[in-house]
Structure formats: C-alpha cells, structure tokens
Amino acid sequence: MTAILLVGCASSSGTKQQVTTSEGNVVTTYDDPQYGIRLTYPGDWQEQSVPFMMRPKGTIIVLIAPSDLGATKMPPTLSVVAQDVKAGNNPEQLDAMQKQIIDKAGKQFGDFKLVESGAAKLGSEQARRVVYTGTKMGVSVEVMNVVTLHNGRQYGVAYSSDPVLYSQYLPQVQRVIDSVQFAK
After folding, report:
1. Which of 16, 62, 88, 156: CA 20 to 30 A from 39?
2. What is the pLDDT of residues 61-76, one digit of tens each?
3. Model-level pTM?
4. 117 contacts 102 by C-beta, under 8 angstroms
C-alpha cells in the first residue's frame, strides 16, 4: 500500500456528512459500510477520483487539500485503502507489512530516504507508520503510510505531499488518522 500519485475520475461508495464543530471548523464525516470504516476530514479537502484502471484494489477514498502548487508538485493528498488478508491479526504481520512498504518504496522512488519507521495506532488497532522522501516521475514527495489489520482486512492511510508542504498539513492528517473508527 503506497501513496496514490495520480488522480482522475470515479468516486467512493461511502456516505458523507458535513458539520460545523463547536470551534467553527467545517468537517466531513465519511462512512463506508462496504469496508467498515468511518473517518472525519477537514471540510475543505476535496474528494478526488482515481480512474478504475489506475486505482489500487481496495481504494476507499482519495482526498486532496487546498493548495497553490503548480502542476509539477505533489499537492497534499490522503488516500485510504483496504484489502482482504488470509491470516489473522498479529504483530509479525504488521512488521512484514512495514518491511514491504519500505522495500517497495525503496525500489519505486528515486533518492529514497527513510525518515521514520515504527509503531503507531489506527483506529483502535496497533499499526505501523513508515515515513520517507523520494522522487517519482520527476516529482519530489514526502510520504507517510500507516497500516493496520482489522477483522481480516489490511487497512492503510497514505499521506503524500510536496516536502515543502508536508509538515504544514501533517496536523490535519493526524486528526484524520486519530478519527478512524472500524465497524464490528
């Protein structure tokens, strides 16, 4: 599960509800009963679609933050994916998922540099977080993947951005990650 770098056309299957918080912020709560996940994201982030042929299997939603970047820079993008797995949930699987992300990114990104790798939480589940920088198709990116296992599924949240904007949007992304709830 790596970050989705291309956006285009076809939408998610979940439902969305926008509300204004007591602090005056507009947020959107997204529920996807097919994948059993709920999350809340900033109301000004726009859902983007990925053409079916380019969309990784299990893509739930792709969001892009408002930014004034040119076409040659990666806007702050958050994608959520889920895939069925054969074995149960255990720490060894999480470690293997973490290693797979690092190995795959090391092969796919030029100038790959591992920034962080370790334990995290996603929803109520133990997870692994991997942060790295690199270039792909001439575009510099900083990427954070948070992956976990829940009820026979592997879930991943990937945040990618131009490295200049990565830290600016990270608090919003962390609030999205902290908002994740799993059904069942």
Report:
1. 88
2. 999 998 876 666 888 9
3. 0.86
4. yes
Query: Could you give the CA distance from residue 145 to residue 91 in angstroms, rounded to a whole number?
Result: 17
What pLDDT, in 10s, does the model give residues 163-182?
999 999 999 999 999 999 99
The vertex-103 CA angle with 141 and 84, nearest 5°, equals 95
The tens digit of pLDDT for each residue in 125-136 reads: 999 999 999 999
Distance of CA 167 to the CA centre of its chain: 15
Using alpha carbons, list the distances in angstroms from residue 19 to 44, 163, 171. 12, 30, 20
Percent share of the chain, pLDDT over 90: 64
What type of residue is 30?
Y
The 3-state DSSP class for residue 87 equals coil
Mapping DSSP to helix (H, G, I), strand (E, B) and coil, where does residue 76 land? coil
- 143 contacts 158 by C-beta, under 8 angstroms: yes
For the chain, the farthest-separated pair of C-alpha atoms sits apart, in whole angstroms, at: 45
What structural domains and CATH numbers belong to the chain? 15-182 (3.40.1000.10)
Extract the tokens encoding 72.
Answer: 């040659």
